[in-house]
Every structure is written in C-alpha cells, then in structure tokens.
Amino acid sequence: MSRVEPIGRTTTRILLDAVGFALCQALVAQEPNPRFDNSAVDGYAVGHASDALVGSRLKVAGIAAAGGNGLNSILVGEARRIFTGAQVPHGTYGIIMQEDVLADGETIALQHTIREGEHIRRIGADFGAGDELLPTGTSIEAGSSALLAFAGASLVEVYDALNISVITTGDELVDPSELPAGSQIRDTNGVMLINQVLGSVRANLKSLRLKDDRALMIRALLEESATQDVIIVAGGASVGDRDYLRPCMDELGQVHIHGVSIRPGKPFLFGTIGDCLVFGLPGNPASAYVCFEAFVRDALRKLAGWQTPTTKWVRVKLGFDHQAIGREDFVRVSYVDGVVHRCSEQGSFGLISVARADGLARLPADLDLRQGDDCLVLWLRR
Predict the structure, then answer these.
(1) Contacts (Cβ under 8 Å, ≥6 apart) of 200
(2) Is residue 3 part of a domain?
(3) Is 97 contained in some domain?
(4) How confident is the model over 238-272, as pLDDT tens digits?
(5) Contact criterion met (CB below 8 Å) for 22 and 71
(6) Alpha-carbon torsion, ordered 16, 17, 22, 26, to 10 deg
(7) How large is the average pLDDT for residues 48-58?
C-alpha cells in the first residue's frame, strides 16, 4: 500500500498505557546501562590478582548489596560478600560465585582461580549514553517499554490512535444477540473485524450495520470519511446488482485497487475518500478474514506510524498436495511438528477453519505442490 503514510497526529501517553502505539521520535539514552559496574552473581568480590588464585583463604570484610554503596576498595587478603546487582567495590579484580567457595563464616577458600573481570557487568555493556535505543516508528511492547522505563520516560510521545469505522452490509444480517429467522444470519464479520483491528493497532472504533441500499452506503461513506482515518466495509465489494461499494466509491472518491488474484478474497477493494482510507472486503467471513490479514493489517500499522509491520512469514513443509488454480491460494492451515495441514472447510463461508487456523499458507498461482514441499505461511498466532 504505497499510498499509506503515517498519520500526522501525535499524542502523549503514560507509559503504562502506551503499548500498541508507535514512537513519533527516537529514544536516545541519556545514561549508560548498566549505570555502574555491578555483580552478575551472588558471591564474593576479590580486590587483587594475588588473592584470586585457587586455594586462597580470604577474610570476609563487609557486604555489598543491591542499592548500597560498594565503592570502598578491598584490602589484600580480604573479600567482600556481594549480591547480584550490587555495585562492585572500586578496583575489584573479579567475583567468584558463592557455590565455588568453602565458607566458615569469617573466611572463604577459593575452589578455582578467578579470571580478571569475572562476573562483573561493566558500565555501558548494554548501551552507552547517546546511543539510539529505539528509532522513530518503534511499536511499543513489553520489551521496548522496559527501555522507556529505564530512560525515565513515564510520558511517551507517540502517533495517535487511529479512528476506524467497521461497516458490515447485507439485508440478511442480524445482531449476534438475535435469533435469525428465515434466511437471516448472524453478523459474524463485525465482531471478527473489530477484533482483528484491535489485535493490530490502537484504535477508536465505530461499528455500523447497513442494509443493501445504495443511498445508505453513500450516506455512511460520506459521514464516516469526514471524521475517520479508515473505513473497513465487509460486503458489497463485488460486482453484483446489490454490491454498491464500487459505484459509491467512484462517486465519492477514488478506487486504487479492485480485484486481486487470490483465493479467497478476489473482490478486495482499496480506495480513498479525501484522506480517509477505504478497504472493501468480501462479505463471506473467510474471505474477509484473509483479506484483512493479507492487506489491511500491515496498512493499518503503517498508517499508525509503525516503522515495520510484525507480519511473520515462515517457511515450513506442506502436509498435503496442492494443484495450482491460476491465482494465489491462501489456505487456512494448522501447524504440527514443522508441517502444515489444511484445516477443514476451505470454502469462503467456512468459520471452523478461520477459528482453528495457525496460519495462511500462500500457495503459488502457477505451480503444483506436493506433500513435503516448502511453502510460505503467514503466521496468525501472536
């Protein structure tokens, strides 16, 4: 989606509520990590090379604990009890683990020779002051939040949450809480797509359900595009007599893509109304699901300022034969011991395969594959 660029809006979030947002400016270290030389183990610090030999018997003189001050030097013939994370005394030669000494309370006997610098975490070993820790566009998750916390960033400047409307269409649709009558069906796309969005980016969501009516579609697109960054429409993207998305988009905005050579999901549409992105997905739930994973998820993340998407493609062995169909086939698959197997019903209406799929196997349009061949799989379990 080359037309998709990060939104211009930024906001300030508290760190505990910043996961899923992308940094709008790089994080630069103001101090090193570690901030001081410290112990990697519970043990004993030795100050001099002459005392670091196997068999040396040393007097235990004092304790260095995490949060305390360990700066005083260690005298010849002495060792200092030290705990993990404690600042090492000035001039420490090395540290021996507590299980590698014989201790009698007041003295210790070394069971092996200590190497210079052994078990000492040196200042700046992880990064130094002035190093770029996280580039602009980094999506914040558990690991990056730890770096932000170390940097004292209790407030974080990030790209703002996206404003997204999810529209489902169809005369046959009723709310999931309702009992369908006649040829009605419960609206599965609405809840599915909302949860796909929530699993992608931080967003302010609206949900609408429309009958198959051109005037209703025109009005909804006009109203939502005036305030939203993205509109996702499920249904009405094909070319049938009651599929109104394409003609409405031609009237209100621009269509950049309509129709892709994949199965399922051929009617996929991408367009714009002003600055608002519009994604048109097929109405069948498996098709809508596949199109979101293949095209929409990464586009939303790019719009939300993410530097790189987290879509994960893995190469694994195919557990079934596949005959090329002239367009790329996205097959819902389960993963067992390095091999992917076709999930039950692969029809575009199928829901069991959507619920149980570990990934989408992307199978080539013009190449037959056999069991045991390599294939690319879009990993869905996050």
Answers:
(1) 296, 297, 300, 301
(2) no
(3) yes
(4) 887 788 999 999 999 999 999 999 999 999 999 99
(5) no
(6) -40
(7) 97
Which residues sit opposite 134 in a β-bridge? 27
Element (DSSP H or E) covering residue 188: helix 188-198
Q: Are residues 231 and 178 in the same domain?
A: yes
Q: Residue type at 219? A: R
Does residue 1 lie in a domain region?
no
Residue 10: the pLDDT is: 97
Residue 131 sits at φ, ψ, to 5 deg, of -70, 140
Measured CA to CA, the distance from residue 189 to residue 341 in angstroms comes to: 25
Which of 303, 320, 336 is the C-terminal boundary of a domain? 303
Query: Is residue 166 a contact partner of residue 192, using CB atoms and an 8 Å limit?
Result: no
Q: What is the CATH number of the domain that holds 248?
A: 3.40.980.10
At 232 the pLDDT is 98
* φ, ψ at 316 (rounded to 5°): -135, 175
Which of 47, 70, 69, 68 lies closest to 58 in space, CA to CA?
Answer: 47
For residue range 134-193, what is the model confidence (pLDDT) as tens digits? 999 999 999 999 999 999 999 999 999 999 999 999 999 999 999 999 999 999 999 999
Phi then psi for residue 60, to 5 deg, are: -85, 115
Structural domain that includes position 150: 10-32+130-159
Is position 2 within any domain? no
pLDDT band at 345 (very low <50, low <70, confident <90, very high): confident
231, 225 Cβ separation under 8 angstroms: yes
The H-or-E segment that residue 190 falls in is helix 188-198
Determine the Cα–Cα distance for residues 294 and 361; give it in Å rounded to an integer.
Answer: 11
